[in-house]
Amino acid sequence: MITTKDLTKVYRTRDREITALDGVDLHVNEGEVFGVVGQSGAGKSSLIRCVNLLERPTSGTVTVDGEDLTALAGKRSRAGRELRAARSRIGMVFQHFNLLSSRTVRGNVELPLEILGYSGQQRRSKALELLDLVGLSEKARAYPAQLSGGQKQRVGIARALAGDPKVLLSDEATSALDPETTRSVLQLLRDLNRKLGLTVLLITHEMDVVKSVCDSAALMKNGRFTESGTVSELLATPGSELAGELFPVGGGSSGDDRTVVDVTFHGGTATEPVVSKLSRTYNIDVSILGAAMDTVGGKQVGRMRIALPGGFDDNVVPIGYLREQGLTVTVVDGPEPASVLSGASVQGPDAEERPATGAESSEEGRR
Amino acid sequence: MSWAEMQPLLWQGVIDTVYMVAWSTLVAVLVGLPIGVLLVLTERGGLLRNAVVNKVLGAIVNVGRSLPFIILMIALIPVTRALVGTFIGPSAAIVPLAIGAIPFFARLVETAVREVDGGLVEAVQSMGGGAPTIVFKALLPQSLPSLVAGLTTTVIVLISYSAMAGAISGGGLGAVALQYGYQRFETGVMLATVAALIVIVTLVQLLGDAVVRFLTRRERSSAA
């Protein structure tokens, strides 16, 4: 639905060049919610602005719903009619809502309809319909200043949906909201995604946003995607930084008398009582050291760190059993051969418990 | 001079002043508003970025702003004569008044429009709106309170310019003050003119403030 190929964006100031996007290949499937996560300055904002060409990419192409927007834009700096028409089919919501304070809630939702050339009566009924969809029909006559942040963002969402878009771009839509409001706004986005088959591309710096609504995610650093895929693919990737951030688990490592393993559930198997089956089948005591489970995109996903009694050699069979169940199993600091263990070291408790910001900002500090 | 003698003089002065100010304000708005908006749109990074237009408009505005009004008025006498047929009388005074007020109002418009949050421009762009849509549906409505405040200031400046114009070309309260109050030593007339000007300026300011308050009431109202 949204594809970018080798997208680059370079900002030139008088004395230097800043590369905001450094060859981004984004692929968002129809009907999915795709989250791009990253620190501020990673290039997320430039990326989402390049998708509807609010910013012109320096090179690369952007295709939305089969339409090559970069070709529509041409070389002119002003947006031509074709590009403007294409933009009207892409909804966008903003971190700071960007509502017109001089218009009522209904007037704000009617604005894109005015641009699309609807008649007064059509605008009115469509706007009320949209406000009903976001649960704000009783606020139609209020002014934005009279609304709470969450309500303002709902108006922003209603406005973004006015052109019946297939694609919604969300630029840190929940970053100015408190956690509870964030949840309800994300829930709304998820509902709209299901109800209208809306494809959503959102950028955020909050892992929770990805965890609660995204089907797929990408991690962005220094203008590049370092990881990208569906949430279950990411979980299945040993050493995935995103998976580690999304599902942090802590709690000890292997010793002589116990084998600690991380079990990753990527949809489907989480409802099966795998752990208790394991315990019964092999007659071993399994202790759960830590777990992070969630329902992502309707599937249960997550990771669990469990300890099995005895050394690794004693547990080859139970670990094999877990793998047979379709789970990804990695031994934490165990004596398993290094090739199988490729992901284990980054999953040590230290790496996981450190907040993402600390780890990455120190890295930025060194640069 | 008795009040009965003074009254028709003053009344005519007020009418001439209002006439001059009203017409020159109209022209200043019609010409100054687009210039002010264009100054914002054509600047670097603006919607219609165009360095040439921006520089030329900016230069015209700066020249207009830096000329003392009295010099502008005298320099414009040939233009006034060509346009109105004479450079004497309230109608003739409208020409230099309007030309003097255009750059003044244009700068105020520029400041007001520049204050509009760029996010709104981006929002309208993302809906597929072009430059005219952005100007008429976002920039102007959002800056309306500041524009009205700027208009109030412009009208008051025009009232003071009109007194100067009147004194030279004859007409309005300025002419009354000069011809009767100064040249005929009628202190009463002088004081009455000053009082009339104070009343007019105060009324304009109060009216302007009231309109600004009316326009911003809904934007400032706190969360319900």
Describe the structure.
The complex is a heterodimer of chains A (367) and B (224). Chain A has 367 residues and is of the alpha/beta class. Chain A folds into two domains: 234 residues, 3-Layer(aba) Sandwich (Rossmann fold), CATH 3.40.50.300; 110 residues, ACT domain (Alpha-Beta Plaits), CATH 3.30.70. Helix content of chain A is 35%, strand content 27%. The longest helix of chain A is centred in the middle third of the chain and has 18 residues. The C terminus of chain A is likely disordered. By secondary structure, chain B is mainly α. Helix content of chain B is 84%, strand content 0%. Chain B is elongated, with a radius of gyration of 20 Å. The termini of chain B are far apart. The model of chain B has no long low-confidence stretch (mean pLDDT 90). The interface between A and B is medium-sized, with 39 and 30 residues.
